[in-house]
Design a protein that fits this description.
By secondary structure, the protein is α+β, with helices and mostly antiparallel strands. It is built from 19 helices and 19 strands. It has two domains: about 250 residues, no CATH class; about 220 residues, 4-Layer Sandwich (Glutamine Phosphoribosylpyrophosphate, subunit 1, domain 1), CATH 3.60.20.40. The protein is about 35% helix and about 15% strand. Strands 1-18-17-13-12-9-8 form a seven-stranded antiparallel beta sheet. A seven-stranded antiparallel beta sheet has the order 7-4-3-11-10-2-19, with helices on one face. The chain has a three-stranded mixed beta sheet with strand order 14-15-16. It binds 6-diazenyl-5-OXO-L-norleucine.
């Protein structure tokens, strides 16, 4: 039955859906009240649980499951809701990855990463002297890849139970009638105001005459109309017809290159998840075009032969070991990883135990390594993203990370369609060795080619224990994503932490280049001093990631935690 519905949707044969006819649980005084909501940082739920960046989206996810939906239904409704209530990263103009394990053990990886437009070319961000014009890959019309999110949601629908028109209705209501914004959102919109004006060619709902303040209502009529077209016409309501026309017209008013054919030809792809074991646990993670799964496999495998728990949590000894694994993994990222449909990524070798042992052979405890001497391994084989963790009553685990790339993406809002486009082209290596907005470097493997998907760090992840669901985890944070997930896993497995501690303890990050360790402000000052004495350059930085985790307790309860670093919130029952 489901297949038939999808085929009909794909063919655009579904008859007009009157949005008023779909019962909604979103509204003043209803189950989800957009004018009155609160942040819940943790909870233990008997049946179903979610954690994500915004309380309204979390409440919608839980309500969908209460109404008979499964974790896949919840992931669709939550991504659409976040596209309205969390415009800095929630999106329909971006892309992402969904990783799931069904209750019957089947693994699913959906890649809806943005792709380079057909008119993109290797040197498109270089001036005539070969210098990188960073502003072009990071802001405005030329910065956008072809959006993948809507295609990803329709690919996810294959595993869902409820009709799409029902899953999208909460987002339509939130966009049409508005919701109350938090202090954090008000600050985000105010600080982006000038770029919205500069990079959008039409007035947008995100720019207000006076400054936004907490408690203001954000109404997005144009976005509501776009969502209604998707409700009525399926994916075609985005990739063809009116919405596609509005995107292309926006491109033509700016210096953009996305065409009607680019949109029509975009497809989400199924990817086999990357699997490995760590200290008796089975880890399932995302394969290229995300670098994340390979990176966490490399880092965990590099430290596995060391008795990390006996070193103690964030002692100099455990932190130094973990940093050196990070350095080596990120060196490989720069050289060997890219879109597997365009570049032969040597996945097997990169996570091979003998290869990884060799990578760590020059590790010297008590002495800082150096990124001049540590290079990528030789292989002979040819801030703002957002994460959703969901576990339903049937035992389905769903982990989704999706993004516009930077906060509020390219800052170009599609005129008449009301959504922000991504600035994901910056995740390509625009010139060999030139750092992108996260300081990541790359080369041939991640060079720009038409249709190619830019290398990502996003890594939705699942852990099984005794072959049973144990943890759903993931985070935003650009290149810090794999280190955050790696540290959350080590916190749970090596240091026996609960979900809340595992995600909220201070973090540290090394990405090979620049050769420095970034630490959060609350990182232990004494450990920092000792690492500096060993020769590490340490810099303090703002929050690293916003991780959401669910851990299944032996009694079956879903221990659910939302990151303290934002408005992130859990819900469940
Ligand atoms: O795919 C990537 O790796 C980046 N575009 C993710 C961006 C991100 O996490 C920004 N958030 N803080």
């Amino acid at each position: 039955m489901r297949k038939i519905v999808i085929l009909l949707l794909a063919a655009g044969c579904i008859q007009s859906v009157n949005s008023q006819s779909v019962p909604s649980f979103v509204g003043a005084g209803k189950t989800v009240d957009p004018y009155k909501y609160s942040i819940v940082k943790k909870g233990e739920f008997n049946k179903a649980a979610v954690s994500c960046a915004h309380p309204l989206a979390s409440e919608i996810g839980a309500a969908i499951m209460k109404k008979g939906g499964n974790a896949f239904d919840a992931s669709i409704a939550m991504q659409l809701a976040l596209a309205v209530v969390y415009p800095g990263a929630g999106n329909i103009g971006g892309g992402g990855f969904l990783l799931a394990r069904k209750s019957n053990g089947e693994l699913i990886g959906i890649d809806y990463r943005e792709a380079a437009p057909s008119k993109a070319s290797r040197d498109m961000y270089l001036d005539k002297n070969g210098n990188v014009q960073m502003a072009l890959s990071q802001t405005g019309h030329l910065a956008s890849g072809i959006p993948g999110t809507i295609a990803g949601l329709f690919a996810t629908l294959d595993y869902a139970k409820l009709p799409f028109k029902q899953l999208i209705q909460p987002a339509i209501d939130l966009a049409e009638k508005g919701f109350v914004i938090s202090e954090r959102e008000a600050a985000g919109l105010n600080s982006t105001r000038e770029s919205f004006i500069k990079y959008s060619t039409r007035p947008t709902a995100f720019v207000k005459e006076n400054k936004w303040k907490a408690g203001d209502t954000l109404v997005q009529k144009e976005l509501a109309a776009t969502l209604k077209r998707v409700q009525k016409e399926g994916a075609k309501g985005f990739y063809e017809g009116e919405t596609a026309k509005l995107i292309v017209e926006e491109m033509q008013r700016g210096n953009g290159i996305i065409t009607l054919d680019d949109l029509k030809d975009y497809t989400a792809k199924l990817r086999s998840p990357l699997e490995f074991d760590y200290r008796g646990h089975h880890i399932i993670s995302f394969a290229p075009p995300s670098s994340g799964g390979i990176l966490i496999a490399q880092m965990l495998k590099m430290i596995e032969k060391y008795p990390v728990s006996s070193y103690g949590f964030q002692t100099v000894k455990s932190v130094q070991l973990m940093i050196e694994a990070e350095r080596r993994a990120y060196a490989d990222r720069a050289e060997h990883m890219g879109d597997p449909d365009f570049y032969n990524v040597p996945v097997k070798t990169l996570i091979d135990e003998t290869y990884l042992a060799k990578r760590m052979s020059d590790y010297t405890p008590d002495k800082a390594g150096s990124s001049t001497s540590v290079k990528a391994g030789v292989i002979k084989e040819s801030e703002e993203t957002t994460h959703i963790s969901i576990m339903d009553d049937d035992g389905n685990m769903v982990s989704v990370t999706y993004t516009l790339n930077g906060g509020y993406g390219s800052r170009t809002v599609v005129g008449g369609a009301g959504f922000i486009l991504n600035n994901e082209m910056d995740d390509f290596s625009v010139k060999p060795g030139a750092p992108n907005m996260y300081g990541a470097v790359g080369g041939e493997a991640n060079s720009i080619q038409p249709g190619k998907r830019m290398l990502s760090s996003m890594v939705p992840t699942l852990i099984l224990k005794n072959n049973k669901p144990y943890v759903v985890v993931g985070t935003p944070g650009g290149t810090t994503i794999p280190t955050s997930v790696y540290q959350a896993i080590v916190n749970i497995i090596d240091f026996s932490m609960n979900a809340d501690d595992a995600i909220n303890k201070p973090k540290f990050h090394h990405q090979w280049l620049p050769d420095e360790v970034m630490v959060e402000k609350d990182f232990d000052a004494d450990v920092k001093k000792q690492l500096q004495a060993m020769g590490y350059k340490i810099s303090e930085r703002a929050a690293i990631g916003r991780t959401e985790a669910i851990r299944i307790l032996p009694n079956g309860k879903r221990e659910t935690a939302a990151d303290k670093r934002g408005d992130d919130s859990v819900a469940g029952f």
